[in-house]
Amino acid sequence: MSLLDIQNLDVTLALPNGPLKAVRDVTLTLEPGESLGIVGESGSGKSMTALALMRLLPRSATCEAKALRFDGQELRDLSDPAFARQIPGPRIGMIFQEPMTSLNPVYTIGRQMTEATVARGLLSEAEARRKAIDLLDRVGIPDPEGRMSQFPHQMSGGQRQRVMIAMTLMLDPELLIADEPTTALDVTVQAQILDLLDDLRRERGMGLILISHDLAVVAERTDRVAVMYLGEMVEQGTAQDVLYRPQHDYTKALLAAIPRLDGPARVPAQVAAAPEVEKVISATNLCREFHSRKGLFGPKKTVRALDDVSLELRRGETLAVIGESGSGKSTLARILLGLDLPDAGDVRMLGRPVLDLPGAERASLVQPVFQDPYTSLNPRRRLSEIIARPLVLRGEGDSASRLAAVKDAMEKVRLPDRLIHAYPSQLSGGQRQRVAIARALITEPEALICDEPTSALDVSVQAQILELLDDLRAKMGLTCLIITHDMAVVHETADRVAVMYQGRVVEEGSARDVLGNPSNDYTARLLAAAPRFGATQEMEAVQ
Amino acid sequence: MSTTDITLTAVEDSETTPLTPGQIFRKRLFGHTGFLIGASIILLIVLVAIFAPLIAPHDPYVQSLSTRMLPPVWSEGGTWEHILGTDQNGRDYLARLIYGTRVSITIGIGAASVGLVIGVTLGVMAGYFGGWIDHAISFLLTAQLALPGLLLAMALVFIIGPSIWVVIGIVGVLHWTYYLVVTRAATQRIRNLDFVAAAKASGASSRQIIWHEILPNLASAIIVIFTFELGIAILAESSLSFLGVGIQPPTPSWGLMIAEGKQAMFYRPWLVILPGICLFLLVIGANLMGDGLRDITSPEGRNE
Fold first, then answer.
1. Is A339 touching B (CB cutoff 8 A)?
2. Complete DSSP assignment for A120-183
3. Fewest C-beta atoms under 10 Å: which of A263, A411, A497, B18?
4. ipTM of the prediction
């Protein structure tokens, strides 16, 4: 008998402009001890499917199904209180995406771990505590006993996600649903957490449903994969089949969109070979420290974000800066943009110290594209105003010439004309990122500094944006600095790579050298953690 | 294209000619029932205030001791001569209410605006610049909150001398704290968003960033506080008037009328109820209009 049997599940959301079918006719089965990956873009209904199973759907949603059986029991027959008592927790555990907010900040780890078991009367206080310490140890938290009395803010994101996993295991569920459990974490941590989930599943014979937007990550660690698109399940099969013999066009497109470490490398920009290379931006010996203070009279804390960083960006090349969160790469971007000042060292643009450049002139040399397209556009301004703003600030042209420039820039980034009066809230994430690029390009800068330009976007959209950047660079001779945590993105876009770790550049060189033959331990670790497809030849053979 | 199509078509999907910004704005304006009701009430009150001399059936200052405290026309003893009755001095209540509109609207809007200018300026400065400016302004806020407002107002009016402009100034100066707290927090949040960094990278000065990037995003919050402070300012004026340091008799003001009516409240309740209803209408009209303005101008949910 299968552990989970969902037949013809429909979820309908009541939106102001009419009902939206978020999930259509989804049929899923899961055997005990089996793992299933559900993959799809944001909005494809993958989370809604899991939430419908757990009765956690938003208020405006209704769900219908022919069958919703768990371990032979029809879940639809249970009343809400009976469901809450029997199913979530002891039978089905769930882990959410955001480890920073899924623990209650005012209670200790110990209390949060033991609360559910003790409240259900399954274990005594002391037994629960012992079990919690065992589980914390199992999920790889150092000093589990000491951690019991700590609070969530004393742990890192990866540790919190481990605590969440341990917490769901306290009740020994038969099925664990992990909804994007690693999306908010660094690559190296991501691999560890996914391996941990896989190990635990084998150890305990649990069923595991892993929901993710990242096909590569899921396919590596699950037996079967289901691909969802626009609320429908377009493909289902063994991980190997879906990965190497995709049937549906969408799956094929999704696979093609994933940046690959083992795909063909991009041809390095020709200019890099020229003898006298012009340096668009050069930074020497940058140091930056941040001081924080608790309250007015509290003790001072110092964080060293940049430690003696030297870097140069040559005309026409794409330089990738790679590192984990907290490695100082965003601080570096801010300093190169002139938004922040280094404590020591200096930044030169085309040979002139950045401090001597007036704002408008600096703006025509270097422009940013930020990570989060949802905060990088002023929600109160129309696209025409947002894109033209740098021109207005420079006092350039009149309204007619600016409008023409805006239309031109929108065409360059392939945004349709009819969006010119739209507000950012009417656009999708990918469209917003295009607007941000259009705004950066309108002053025709020498260089673009892109801080994680695609990490907030879906894989398929990421491919489009990266392609757009590559195109623009070829056409306009743009110089690009791309900051990222994704090795595969580096592989596909960069000529040169600088690897940052704890505020230092630990390795620098051509993309081929660094990725093919890393000389630094940390670089090697980053490379090993990046998800990749195992058998490339097989893939090629199929094609 | 039928009307249902227009409301359901999101901008992204529409392949027809897009509406111009002006057309969209008008459509949203006339599609918002709450805003239409609120705006009508406010418009009506403003018109009454402007054309008071033409509408008022009597002179609001003429006393007639023989016809003191007449009830309104619908209760026993009321006359059509004085539709809403008369007050303690025999003055026509309708005429006084109509003339009182002028004082109440001026004080409400004036004082709420004075508070807005002070509070938003300080709040945005504290939130945007941070550091010692923030400390200094936060200290000012604490000091303001610690002061007994009414006592201070009385002392100030006593020193400067009572007039409607002094009352507006003082009520405004005493009611900027909400603006400050809300705009400071919102500015601190917005300051760190990427679009501000993008503006800086385009060479925008602090002044340009505050005017062009930050203030538009504070608008919804400011509108809501303004409508809310409008009511509070009118009530504050009535407290001052009640204590004898606000609007000086015989000038008619709703606050003063409530204050005067209090003495006879249990025998002649309409003396308090009628100006109370006017005040209620003004405040609810302002609130409906404010909420409507916020919905109409905010870009979120434009597809609805």
1. yes
2. TTSS-HHHHHHHHHHHHHHTT-SSHHHHTT--GGGS-HHHHHHHHHHHHHTT--SEEEEESTTT
3. A411
4. 0.74
